[in-house]
Write a structure and sequence with these properties.
The structure is a homodimer of 349-residue chains. By secondary structure, chain A is α/β, with parallel strands linked by helices. In chain A, the strands form three sheets. The first copy, chain A, has a six-stranded parallel sheet, with helices on both faces. A six-stranded mixed sheet of chain A has the order 7-6-10-11-12-14, sandwiched between helices. Chain A has a two-stranded antiparallel sheet with strand order 8-9. In chain A, helix 1 packs across helix 2, helix 5 crosses helix 12 and helix 8 packs across helix 9. Chain A is elongated. The structure holds a DNA duplex (16 and 16 nucleotides).
Chain lengths: 349, 349
DNA sequence: TTGTAAGCGTTATCAC
DNA sequence: GTGATAACGCTTACAA
């Protein structure tokens, strides 16, 4: 009589009138006499038995659980990334321990501690602390940050994305380009967007300017810059590449409120591929990150874990899509693009 | 010599020169001689030891892990809800197994199976399958669906929210009100928004109309209705309550493209409290759900689990906030409200 | 107080 | 092929 509510292998063995080992063999796909197998399966079914992965893990050192460390869930980029990662893991029978750190280094440490207690088979992390990731004693894969050559890192091809943005703006007739960048100071793969953009400008002999703001608190310098280059509703640049879609949207708002028309006067491209929750359309013309592939790659690397000799950084190809803030593709209608209500793909909310 | 990389209690005991039980007692806060305690702590520190929660759980029947079953992560409402829930659980030392079902009943079943294997101390679920939730043999708390009187359910006060929307529209001068509802057919707490709205209209003797669309695929009937009530850019109603912010945004887009001005001609209120990812402002005037409190309540109920005699449904108070689509508060600037770039609260992206 | 040993649910190694 | 039985890392009587 196990006092717990959940039936155990022992219960199944007793019910089926076989030995414990036999039950185990059935559930692990080892050869078992046909008649025995049936008795075991019937008993298990009857008792509604499920093998306990953690008890099993005690022996096998596998919990079929991976930890996911992410800075935010409120931002659509991270939310979508987490969505793809949990889905990818689920497909392989893994559960995901999701931990949100809100960009707080102390929280990141706490999460690592917690995760070391509840054993996981690996960790996928987008953190701001190189130390944690390197010291961890389980396999780790990072997103967007290459902390150590031994720790595989997955990201989009940020450099190429920057190039594409510049090339596309040129192709659409822009002559004076501007790159706007806001974000934390930490060294990240995402910082290759600017250099990619610059390379394309140089290569094509295009006039351009770059503005980097290293700040997590305020992007006021950005708007000061915009203001200075604004003369009677005329803007000094006719093409802007912003390092994120979020920044792109805010810049668009600012310009439009100052009489500059997007995309007629200025064309703008963002980065990420954020989609408007209500309409299902991209919030601006953008370089979209291949989230699905990034997730699959990260999970592959984590679980195969023959991670030694391989290259350690994987930059996956991005794509450009028009989103109403450039002169190609759909016409602009603010944040909502060319929303057609009769063919919308909303989701019950 | 444990062949695993991770140190075990045995290793700590050997290193400290004490018995196994002593180490255990130290880590469980039981009285231990000062000198012993110090030796154990030093040894643990030196070996970087962490207690294995799952091995511990084998004895104690607690894993400090709860399962979270949610239909989506791409929608900001669910993302925010999950964010609050994981945060609340984390504060109490619990890890969260997040599972996303994409509104798929089969996936919901699979997730339940998986979660039964990796034992959890409880489940918080927003599902479309009453059966799963009722049969589960761990504590369950549901969000927005009351499937069974024994299973606690947490939601916002939807009825009151509906009343508030109607009352606010009246207060702002509306005379002909309209309620628009889109969503799945399943019986849910969210369906009390309409009745609340209706009650307020009746009580105040206001002219009103209700349109319920039970469909998860298309909201075309909504737009057909709008079209029929649209005459030369004049709309038959001057106040609309939509059952979600998403629907509100789409309705606004539709009306504006047909020459109706919001909020000048028609004032619109949504439900949920969705915030624009780029600007940090509400996407429309709305009834906001108390996500933080809902999460805390759900976690409380799940973990205290003295859930028997108590009432089983918890409807938490909502609040109204202006968001530019009504004539109160900030002026409307499309989806972006009165965004002030120099005081923005963006988050690095 | 501290040490010892049984047992949690499972796997894996033995003899049979 | 099947049934005992020792481990896995930990908690918890019970004995010392």
């Amino acid at each position: 009589m196990s006092r717990s509510l959940q039936p155990t292998m022992k219960d199944v063995a007793r019910e089926a009138g076989v030995a414990l080992g036999t039950v185990s063999r059935v559930f692990n796909g080892f050869p078992v006499g046909e008649e025995y197998r049936e008795r075991v399966e019937a008993a298990a079914e009857k008792l509604n038995y499920r093998v306990n992965n953690y008890a099993r893990g005690l022996k096998t050192n596998k919990t079929f659980c991976v930890g996911l460390l992410m800075p935010s869930l409120r931002h659509p980029f991270f939310a979508s990334l987490i969505d793809e990662l949990t889905a990818s893991l689920m497909r392989r029978g893994y559960l995901t321990n999701v931990m949100i750190t809100n960009f707080d280094p102390d929280a990141e440490l706490k999460c690592f501690r917690l995760i070391e207690q509840n054993k996981v088979d690996g960790i996928i992390a987008l953190t701001y602390r190189p130390d944690l990731v390197v010291e961890a004693d389980v396999p780790v894969v990072t997103i967007d940050r290459q902390f150590h050559p031994d720790i595989p890192c997955v990201s989009s091809d940020n450099f190429r994305g920057g190039q594409m943005a510049a090339e596309k703006l040129l192709e659409l007739g822009c002559r004076r380009l501007l790159f706007l960048r806001i974000g934390p100071e930490i060294q990240s793969e995402a910082d290759r967007r600017g250099p990619g953009f610059e390379e394309a400008c140089r290569r094509t002999g295009t006039e351009y300017e770059l503005l980097y703001v290293n700040d997590e608190e305020t992007e006021a310098p950005i708007y000061r810059f915009l203001m200075e280059h604004l003369h009677d509703s005329r803007f000094d640049f006719d093409g802007i590449f912003c390092n994120t879609d979020g920044l792109a949207r805010r810049v668009i708002n600012y310009l439009e409120r100052n009489g500059v028309r997007v995309p007629d006067d200025v064309q703008i491209i963002g980065y990420d591929g954020i989609i408007n929750f209500a309409t299902g359309f991209y919030v601006c013309s953008t370089i979209v990150q291949p989230l699905r592939r990034m997730a699959e790659t990260a999970v592959d690397l984590l679980l195969s874990s023959e991670s030694s000799t391989h290259e350690s950084i994987f930059r996956l190809p991005v794509t450009y899509v028009p989103g109403g803030t450039t002169k190609d593709g759909p016409a602009a209608v603010g944040d909502s693009s060319v929303y057609d209500p009769f063919h919308s793909d909303f989701r019950g909310r």
